Amino acid sequence: MAVNPAIAGRVYPPGPVYEVGREKIAEFARAIGSEDPAHTDPEAARALGYPDMVAPPTFAVIVAQRAEAALIEDPDAGIDYDRLVHGEENFVHHRPIVAGDRLIATLHVDTARLVGGHGMVTSRAEIADAGGAPVSTVRSTVVIRGGE
Amino acid sequence: MAALSFDDVAVGDVVPERAFPLHRVDLIRYAGASGDFNIIHWNERFATSVGLPDVVAHGMLTMATAGRVVTDWCGDPGAVVEYGVRFTAPVPVPDDDAGATLVVGGVVKSRDEKARTVTVELTAATAAGTKVLGRALAVVRL
To answer: Cβ–Cβ contacts within 10 Å for residue A33, how many?
Structure first.
């Protein structure tokens, strides 16, 4: 079985706090080829109205994928990482992520089903700041290819 | 860089198309920066053993690269309030000087006066014309 459908509705408790560093934002921006100074220069970010360097729109995937590891590594889920294909990704930013943020992600399994021998799982990482205010909602759909 | 203002944008406006080269080193750099070390993104032997044509780019690198078209266009990377894609085909990145090329463009599909947001629909394809992202929509608050 490519995935255990019974995991739908499961919630994985938050892991350790993810502290957003300036160097990490700059490193991620470089890795996606962005030369926007708001990712590397705090003054450029402040000129746009942010308290510090601002993260690229997909930066939250780092935090979300750490949370998704709890699901992928859950023996009860029965997911074979080597058979996993990324199907969809969606970010909703309640506010931009900036350097200095301390983020906490709670992972929700929204759907888990078997479709023609393949598994299909949609998870939702709810990312909040240290005060509990929502920062980003990251939805990810993966397909787990069934055995041949 | 001056950020774009809501009143400057009309439905149908074109976000200029750009071509982005992708080489193996870009995949390695993205793996390191993102923490995504899935073997299919760096090991050709493994990638081909699971039926892929070659090492393939991280879907999230393709998504991030396409997102640059939007953030560079609007001038404010924090203005993207929603961004979603479907991954419709892998992007093989051969181990040669040419690598792969992503061609990304966009068009403004709608405007929301009340929220002062615009929705940009993106297209992303390989140089050979294979569409790699579907339903790629970015909502930008201006």
So the answer is: 16
